[in-house]
## 1
Amino acid sequence: MAVRIRLPGGTLKMKVYRELRERERARRIPVLKLGSLYFSRWSEPAASVERPARRRSQPISGSALTARKKPSSGGCA
């Protein structure tokens, strides 16, 4: 299982060889091998650095669920 560490401007990932993506295996991004672990750094585009990171642990509010558009229950208009 890969371990991701969020850093300013990118993400540091720690993986074993079978979890590497093609770009990591081809060394198109910075990769460091220490023993059987591979450390890769994925940088974020400049525009997304200014945005705060989203948190998955925050529940969706009830108003967001009810604000969805309901399908019309009629024929063609």
Note: DSSP finds three helices and four strands in the chain.
## 2
Amino acid sequence: MSAKDICRLCKDNLRIKGTISGFRSIFQKNDAREKSISERLTELGLPLSENVSRSGRICLRCFRLIGRLQDDFDVFRRWQEAEKDSNPAEASTSTSQATAESSNASSTGKKRPEKRDRVPTPSKTCLQPPTPTAPPAPKYSRPTTDNVTPKTARRSLTEVIIHYPSHPKGDRIVCQANTAAIVENIAKQNWSRAANQMVKNKDLLEALKENILQVIEDEIKFLCNPLKGFMLWRSSAADLKAFSFANLQSDLQSMAPFTYSIFSQITKGSPHPTCASAAIALQGREPRLSAFAYYVNGVLQYGGAKKLFTKG
């Protein structure tokens, strides 16, 4: 970004979508009868000089602020003049009083006693008994922020330039503070950092939820399709005899990796609870995915479990 594209006073960017707008020139006059912004600032005590490395523009907000400062400064000057007008009268009164006292002293022939010739005050000469006093209160140091490290704000400026065939110069977009780090890391292909910044942005995370849920929905539909060969569809005696958690884990990881990662995160990566919870959840979605239920029933019967309730 060029120095000519910013406000000289507040440093705001004046180039919006490739066009500089909403500014006033500091050294040029729109009307010969009016003062330039540079002359007005000089009257306020801020002289500006034309410099190639400095901007010659200010934004409209600073332009309006200069007008308010001039109005307030005029009021301040009136206060100064009113104070100057009142000071000479007070000075002349005090001078006349001093002259009258000196003339009276000279006419009577009496001199004003000096301080060393005066009679001392009794309270200062008589010794007073010491009074019991409380011990001085402890002085606590006032908390300061010298040792506190302030939270540094982002100082860099991230911009995106989009070039269109119909607009070769391109459109320049200045990224906001809450999205600048995301855009920067995506451009540098730092995917983990970009994802970390995305989840910190509440609005962006809310928009991503629908896409994440859609990814899970697509994977579940794939598993619930009997033509895809998911092992929970196979519930014959031979299939149940060959049932293993390793095969179920392999199918889940290859057919529904995102859904499996969610169950794995919930169970802290333990494979058996991950596969069992996924199988139970999938049967709640599709009752025909019953291979795991038959497998559990067979294990219980082999262990000697008996039915306590029957359908009546």
Note: The CA atoms of residues 14 and 217 lie 46 Å apart.
## 3
Amino acid sequence: MVPTFTLLSERDIAARKAELLARAGMPRHELIAKGLAYQLTPAEDAIKRELEDLDYLDGDGHE
């Protein structure tokens, strides 16, 4: 198996975040609040985790 990676521009990251929030069907603050209350479905939790990963890559200060 060959490791792969994807280079993402700031625009790519912003677009992916918007896609994820649209798929979640709720604003980011609601997703975070549900996560803090352990009320996320597995799909919502995966979205929240990917948003956190994208925040890290983007240097964003969200959670």
Note: The mean pLDDT is 92.
## 4
Amino acid sequence: MVVLVATFIIFLFFSGLLFSYNLLYIELKQSFNSTTTQTGIPGAISISLFCFGSVVITILFQKLGHRTTVLLGVSLCCLSLLLSSFAQHISVLYFTYGVMYGIGFNACNIASTDLILRSFDKCNATRATSTTLCAISIGFLASPCLKWLYETYSWRIAFRILCVVFALVGYPSALVMVEINKSDDEDSGKEDSNTTQETFSIANYSALFRRRDFILCLIGILLSTSAVTFTLISVGNYLSVNGMDLSVISFVLVLMGVGDLAGRIIAAIFSDRLPISRILQNALSNIAAAVPSICLPFISTQIGRIVAFTVMSVPRAWLLVLTPSIAMEVSSDETRAESVAALYMAFGAGAFITTYFTDAIYDITGSYDMPWFICTGLYALSTLCMVFSERARRGRVQNDVQRYDSVDKCCDKI
């Protein structure tokens, strides 16, 4: 329970800034007079590395422990904000904000998520992760606060203020995270290396990439993440070029946060109880997200756009929440940590390429219609990947059952 609360607090503050890049996007574009693509890159890099560095972070917390890894992540995020506040060119933010903040929050996310998964069984895993990830949605609701900071003090001073605030809440939260002791014979002083320590193994990744269901999930998550990241980075600019001022954009982001929170709460309550796998839940979420995406190029009213973004946020939340649970469905207990890391890497890869085929297209055409059509296509392709992944998973389970039945029959004959 302590781990859940500590993770919730870290996610609330740190992800609130990361996923409110739509507001920062507008401030940076005005401050540096940069192009749409240039302005989107720091946000794309940070969200990408928030996930893409998962393999390295997995090795790190297996060597140093979860608490130490989270402490390092908090330190990197605070340093990122401080250094970014002195940047004189947008390209400097590619590293100080994009790389440093992305890796820092990734360390907090992966280490704390793995600790939660170790603390809960498979039946309650989605409920536990969904509960902590609800903090991201609540972070969206802080958009008016960020807007006030940006308008009152400028984004540079706001970053320095947030650096201090993040340190005050991040370090105490990390310190209360207690490591899970997996040794069964601690009292006798004996240590079994097979149960007290999980080591990074290339063999585990090799075993994962031989699974067809895992490969298809990997591709599906990469595709859907590319579409999801577009809504996390460029919605602010899209609304701005369509005549909305910063106050209205902030209000839209709050509504998106409400929709996101509703999606996470629904997932936390019902995902583990639904009679279908998390993989199929992901496929259905892709379909639900594609509907408002395909409609946006044809919507001409501000109210219509606001409704579309609010509705889109609900399935988007499911797509983000389900990733750790899907990793458990397409892996064995021995490869669980590697599966989570690999799927988050796919998440990061999808986020990284987003700005190059969405904002770049806007720079060329002056319209966001084509990017929305591309996002719809990505959701559709991801749906197909997830459906075929579920089919492969069921075939694998059936083959395992038949194999065990054959072994049992042979034993009976003997």
Note: Residues 182-200 have pLDDT under 50 and may be disordered.
